[in-house]
Design a protein that fits this description.
Layout lengths: L1 H14 L1 H7 L6 H10 L6 H9 L5 H8 L15
Helix pairs in contact: 1-2, 1-5
């Protein structure tokens, strides 16, 4: 079941600073984040991720800490120097 992978993914984000850093580039685009996670071996759907994030299982500040920022942060794309 892909929800298990989603839970493994969030746990991995909490524990792995390198994964957090790499994930930060995708935090503004849920579809891209799901594809990136799949390439890392975590398979879940966009809908599962959105539902899980809105379920309250992970507080907003925890998600921000894990991802290095909130979904939709008004930050420039990585590498733009802005």
């Amino acid at each position: 079941m892909s929800v298990g992978d989603l839970e493994r993914f969030v746990s991995a984000l909490r524990l792995d600073p390198d994964l957090q850093r790499d994930f930060a580039a995708y935090r503004r685009d849920l579809d891209a984040a799901v594809q990136w996670a799949a390439a890392k071996g975590f398979h879940f759907t966009r809908e599962e991720a959105a539902q899980w994030a809105s379920s309250g299982e992970l507080a907003d500040d925890e998600l921000e800490d894990a991802a290095g920022g909130a979904w939709g942060d008004p930050l420039p794309p990585p590498g733009t120097g802005g």
